[in-house]
From TrEMBL:
<keyword id="KW-0963">Cytoplasm</keyword>
<dbReference type="Pfam" id="PF07859">
    <property type="entry name" value="Abhydrolase_3"/>
</dbReference>
<dbReference type="GO" id="GO:0019441">
    <property type="term" value="P:L-tryptophan catabolic process to kynurenine"/>
</dbReference>
<dbReference type="InterPro" id="IPR027519">
    <property type="entry name" value="KFase_ver/fungi-typ"/>
</dbReference>
<dbReference type="GO" id="GO:0004061">
    <property type="term" value="F:arylformamidase activity"/>
</dbReference>
<dbReference type="InterPro" id="IPR013094">
    <property type="entry name" value="AB_hydrolase_3"/>
</dbReference>
<dbReference type="InterPro" id="IPR050300">
    <property type="entry name" value="GDXG_lipolytic_enzyme"/>
</dbReference>
<keyword id="KW-0539">Nucleus</keyword>
<dbReference type="InterPro" id="IPR029058">
    <property type="entry name" value="AB_hydrolase_fold"/>
</dbReference>
<feature type="domain" description="Alpha/beta hydrolase fold-3">
    <location>
        <begin position="41"/>
        <end position="229"/>
    </location>
</feature>
<keyword id="KW-0823">Tryptophan catabolism</keyword>
<keyword id="KW-0378">Hydrolase</keyword>
<protein>
    <submittedName>
        <fullName>KFA formamidase</fullName>
    </submittedName>
</protein>
Length: 254
């Protein structure tokens, strides 16, 4: 419902293809007037890599659009059709496409929730020379994310993903932090976790933020009271919500 309201109220480009796959598409929400040199808030949805889509990912747009920030919702192939290596590559390719196609973007701010936070964290470890572009990532907001995939190998989550240990290891942000240091100087990272997230989400958020900090990143850990794994992200539709305000302040500082 929030996404439908955002689409009705904003200037949009929907289902913009960044590749040939059915889900390799972006929804782009532009602020009024579509001025040049706008920052872009790029949202990667969660759903344990096997449900949800970009079509329900525009709910956070209105508060950001009102401050002159474009919002981009990323689609990617979910399991079982999508595999972990491919999902990570798709999200990286989507970002390269975005900044090449829309030269008016000045600064990218990643945001991902749950599985989307995992994918956003993997973007931070990207060697962008392989894509021929510097996307200019200025901030990353990782919300209730998964940063170590190995604990999932023997759970129901992996039934659809069919990850091997090798796939889980090379796609675990916790194991990719050291290679990401060159990006660290220009990117502010916020790791957010809900008071009522499960102990495993909370543990991984704390350990990943510590790993980033040890590797030289500018990182903050925000423990949000009174929210759970779902409303921690759904409340981004509210301008007065603390995480919305933190995001707006991050963009304003840059």
């Amino acid at each position: 419902a929030g996404t439908q309201r955002a689409r009705a109220a904003a200037q949009t480009l929907l289902h913009v293809p960044y590749g040939d796959g059915d889900r390799e598409k972006l929804d782009i929400y532009f602020p009024a007037g579509s001025p040049k040199n706008v920052p872009a808030f790029v949202y990667i949805h969660g759903g344990y890599w096997q449900c949800l889509s970009k079509d329900a990912s525009g709910f956070a747009a209105p508060p950001l659009l009102s401050r002159g920030v474009a919002v981009v919702a990323v689609g990617y192939d979910i399991a079982p059709a999508g595999h972990m290596d491919a999902m990570v590559l798709q999200v990286r390719r989507s970002l390269a496409f975005l900044v090449k196609q829309y030269s008016g973007i000045r600064g990218v701010y990643l945001c991902g929730h749950s599985a989307g936070a995992h994918l956003a964290a993997m973007v931070l470890s990207t060697d962008w020379t392989e894509f021929g572009v510097d996307p200019g990532i200025r901030g990353a907001v990782l919300v209730s994310g998964v940063y170590d995939l190995e604990p999932l190998l023997h759970t129901y989550v992996n039934n659809a993903l069919s990850m091997s240990r090798e796939v889980a290891q090379r796609n675990s942000p916790m194991l990719c932090v050291t290679g990401a240091v060159p990006v660290a100087a220009s990117c502010e990272v916020l790791v957010a976790v809900a008071q009522h997230d499960s102990p495993e989400f909370r543990r991984q958020s704390q350990e990943y933020s510590q790993a980033l900090r040890s590797a030289g990143w500018s990182v903050s850990l925000l423990d949000l009271a009174g929210v759970d794994h779902f409303d921690i992200i759904e409340k981004l539709s509210e301008e007065t919500y603390v995480l919305t305000q933190v995001i707006l302040n991050m963009i304003a500082r840059a």
